[in-house]
Amino acid sequence: MPYPVPMQVEAIQAALREASAGAGPLSGIDGWLFYDHHHRDPVGERILGLDPHAHVTRRWYYFIPTVGEPRKLVHRIEAGRLDSLPGTKGQYSSWQELATGIDTMLAGTRRLAMQYSPRNAIMYVSMVDAGTVEFLRSLGKEIVSSADLVSHFEAVLSADQIASHQAAQRAIDGILAAAFRELGRVLHPPTGNPAHITEFDLVQWFAEAMRREGLTWENGPNVSVGPNSADSHYEPTAERCLPIRNGDFLLIDIWGRKDLPNSIHYDITWTGVIGREPTPLEQHVFATVREARDAAIACVENAFSARAFAQTGIAQGAYTGTAPSRPLHGYEPDDAAREVIRNAGFGEYFTHRTGHNIAIELHGSGANLDNLEAHDERIILPNTCFSVEPGIYLPANFQPGHPQFGIRSEVNMLTSLNKAWVTGPRQQELVRI
User: Fold this and answer.
1) Architecture category of domain 159-432 in CATH
2) Which pTM value belongs to this model?
3) CA-based Rg of the chain, rounded to a whole angstrom?
4) Would you say domain 9-155 falls under CATH 3.40.350.10?
């Protein structure tokens, strides 16, 4: 669980001023309005450094203006809920007082950022309910998306966080290599009599190995053989799993982070075959997925390799005054990967986005590599991390007589101001076990 961090009003207001002065979607912004009830906005809680376990049974509002002192509005029976934050405090009990209090709090403002996305296009930041937006509009307020602000304050990593990702990478890459050796030992013993092992058994083996390395993780990891590899979010359990046997196709998806405050995940997927050579179809699909992965990687690398910089502010996805000369939107690497797979005739079998932001949470709040599930127009910022993981998942009847299978090749990338790179090894051929 992420630890709350101190909220810095100065940094948020600097970002708001730069955004307001720019030409992007937050141009002319008057401030950032946070709102919560029963922890419906974990993104806002993290940015403000609030306790995610606090007892929140009444609505609260916190407004950070572009210039000036922040303002709070809280219910009288939870009057201390925002006392850790700076600013003036208003209180209410009745719904009439609440309406008046909001009107007073936002006096003199017109254009407000909230955790909102028009048409729910970027659902990862769409936290505020429609009724609240309707009420604010009735007061003459224009509500715009805070998505780019959220990316800056949630997805941009510190040097220590980047180091924690690299530590997780070294540990998980070592564990995965050991798992392949363990499978070989179990299924190809000197006696010639393979031992019994299931998908879930290997999941348990991974869990023990990860705990020894001081890692923590959400669910998983994922071990899929045969037709289960064609289910991109398959989860084996003790009651529902297949035995792993010679002749099987194997997919392993493993992720985790160091069990330390604010550490960053590492998340990879590898595929291979057990006790045999790959079929021509498996080879072809893997080569296509590998080419799609590398096309997305090249798209990112090319955008971040430019040496010229522009004073572009939030319109180019940065709050430091400098950014790569060609800003990169989240949908662009997805387009690059999807074009490769579509041209190979497998377009309908690539059923998920190309990648997701990675932060303290496995699926972070920054830009995703996505033009399928969402048209992600958010800018991929310097000092962020994300996965690149195209996949092809074929049905049982795709080729007569060929077993059902799926292939995904997943790596992680980090960015700096003028460079982007893959943080671990890239799989170049199907593993033979």
Assistant:
1) Alpha-Beta Complex (3.90)
2) 0.90
3) 24
4) yes
